[in-house]
Amino acid sequence: MLLAVDGLSMRFGGLLAVDDVSFGVAAGRITAVIGPNGAGKTTLFNCITGFYRPSAGSLRFAPPELGPGQERRLERMAGFRIAQAGIARTFQNIRLFAGMTALENLVVAQHVALSRAGGFGVLALLGTPGFARAERAAVERARGWLERVELVGSADLPAGALSYGDQRRLEIARAMCTGPRLLCLDEPAAGLNPRESEALRSLLAEIRAEGCAILLIEHDMGVVMRVSDHVVVLDHGRRIAAGSPAAVRADPAVIAAYLGVEA
Amino acid sequence: MGPQAPAESRGRASGLASLKRVAITALIAFGIFGAIVGLRVEPGRLVARPLMVAVLVGVVVGARLMRWPRVRLPSLTRVLAPGLLVMAVGLPLFAGRYLVDTGTLVLIYVMLGWGLNIVVGLAGLLDLGYVAFYAVGAYATAILSTQFGWSFWACLPVSGLLAAAAGAALGAPVLRLRGDYLAIVTLAFGEIIRIVITNWVSLTGGPNGISGIPRPTLFGLRLNGGGAGSVAHLLGVAPRPMLRVVFLYYLILALALITNAVALRLRRLPVGRAWEALREDEVACRALGMNVTLIKLSAFATSAMFGGFAGSFFAVRAAFVSPESFVFIESATVLAIVVLGGLGSQLGVALAAVVMIGGGEGLRETLLDVSSEAGSAGWLGSLAGDVGQYRMLVFGLLMVGVMVLRPRGLVSGRRATVTLGAAPAVVDGGLVAEGRG
Fold first, then answer.
1. Which of residues 46-75 of A touch B (CB under 8 A)?
2. Closest residue to B277, CB basis, from A91, A97, A143
3. Is A130 an 8 Å CB contact of chain B?
4. N or C: which end of chain A has fewer CB within 10 A?
């Protein structure tokens, strides 16, 4: 398991938003978290990516570069260190740097590596060849991602001026520029037209094929059922089902949660 | 590359076109005012009044630039920035002592504005206590030079470093705060520094300040007085105060230009991009693994360092420092310059400093000149005498006017730090965030 979520709970005062949830995210697989509105999906995401500190439970992250048997306990790490450890995310409401160009967004995403190459400002200020090389490599990587999400023609346009669908894709590209092991996407298909959602599906498949695991929150069942390897269903903060897309679709508890049951 | 090329040539054409439109406006204004007020018939002769015409044409062109957004300021900046620089370098060659002194004052504020622009304009952190770092730099120089006999050139870097340390010390505890709360705490910090200076009499001399700060030297040569070891002696000219005034002017010009160069360079480095990203969206920064605390701290410290350099210069220029020079209105003035100029714009800040600091002086002088040109020392002359009293009123009106007509400041576009295409990419000011914390 790349990420093992074990007994995770998140309490806001009297509200138990996530209640004793356990599941695993396999390396190189797409895992989807679905559930009705208010089921606790985004709260779960915020716990995993370090925006909330969970009230109870553990989050064990074991990327291959750590070596066998080694793991990092995400629930004890500062938020920005989780991203540095190899978990990137996008947001339900797009959070691009609107006043910066598409290219700048992707270069900023490589800040941690670039800043290290720049000797935390010293080598960068002096403009050493090593830093100049790192900077060129960062721009090339950004260009590569812009090509993949078909935004290379908009590279020098402000991110805030791009269309909604383009912004969604740019945000995924920005997350990928951090070089993650696990990509967390919060409703990436929301507001996309059928053609854009088809393009998203093939982009996710490509990212998966390159060995990056994906954790996905999604309402668009067409996307979920077609791309996911594993589906976890939440309702009222609890895990009510987990399994392959076909098994989850046939699960009576899931149908009840989505459609309601007759008394 | 394909789709960008036509867009660029279009931008250039409209830039030229807007220059042309402004030139036509100026020509028409000149024609009208030149004919009506440019010449005055006195018994037996014609008197030309070029200054009056220049002022009126200037007002019309200024209004034209403000009023119609179709005139693109970014295209004008290409002409404006080198023009300003040439004027700044050449000023002491033709101007008198009064004007050079005023220029020095303006340049201090330009430098402070450029320094504050790092934290407010780039990182989007509202700092209402910038004068504190200016004070730390000034007092560091004053104390080190009078009590320990350090020269200005030794004091200058130390003052900057001490101010940067003060910036980091302020930054560390308040970084969790955002927006209004941060502004209030920085304001309080500015006051604390001033009150400490006022009350720590044994070190700072309290309200009496510190006087007798040694003047700066040029490679060990004195600028004032004559005799061996003075610049006047080396040049073989009679010693005169103008020599020192001009030297101080070029010193602050060099310091300001260094500030500008460093700020522009930092903007293109990872740390500068991180500052701007922080202004745009702090949450997204965190999700990308950026240490937001450290980035804020570096912005505070860098900005404070330049404030410290400026303070050091201030101390040796006046040869005297006292707490009265570091009151809140100074912070407010520098912040007003940054906001008026356009957050993050270096040229805008320079223009705003010239208008706000030089404007008051210039207005007074111009009114005096015009009134004497008009041949009657009547109401214009007395108005000139009153300008000092109405200074803040005029600034208030000016700021309201600029904010209504150009809500993002005089120069509001943001230039991208890296591009794929050959053309410089300019982001419209409306898309750029102002920062919330």
1. 49-51
2. A97
3. no
4. C
Q: Tokens for B117?
A: 């622009």
Report whether A26 contacts A226 (CB < 8 A). no
Where do we find the tokens 């007509």? B405
CB B152 within 8 A of CB B141: yes
Q: Which residues of B touch A124 (CB under 8 A)?
A: 269-271
Please report where in the chains the tokens 């490679």 appear, as a residue: B219
Taking the CB of residue B356, how many other CB atoms lie within 10 A of it? 23
Strand partners, B230: B222
Residues facing residue A59 across a β-bridge: A5
Q: Which of A49, A84, A99 sits opposite B427 (nearest CB)?
A: A99
Question: Do A51 and B416 count as a contact with CB atoms less than 8 A apart?
Answer: no
pTM score, two decimals?
Answer: 0.83
For chain B, what is the mean pLDDT?
Answer: 82
The string of DSSP letters for B165-189 reads: HHHHHHHHHHTT--HHHHHHHHHHH
pLDDT in tens, B152-210: 999 999 999 999 999 998 888 887 777 788 889 899 999 999 999 999 999 888 889 89
Reported as a pLDDT band with limits 50, 70 and 90, residue B9 is very low
Q: Which residues of A touch B428 (CB under 8 A)?
A: 158, 161
Per-residue pLDDT at B1: 37
